[in-house]
Amino acid sequence: PTESEESPLYVNAKQFDRILKRRVARQQLEESLTSKGRKPYLHESRHKQAMRRPRGPGGRFLTAVKVEAQK
Question: What is the pTM of this model?
Fold first, then answer.
């Protein structure tokens, strides 16, 4: 066992208060991140337009010049 497991670590009252406050904040952040069911995109019309655009091998959108070169 390490030294911290054998004996308690003493901190002053202000430090302890801040430690507790940080624990609560972390817990609230974790709950908010896991509970939200976020939509994959915000605007349906923008999503549809993006899905119609031609893409390159890496998944990026092709420029107008490259689209013309393919035709």
Answer: 0.43
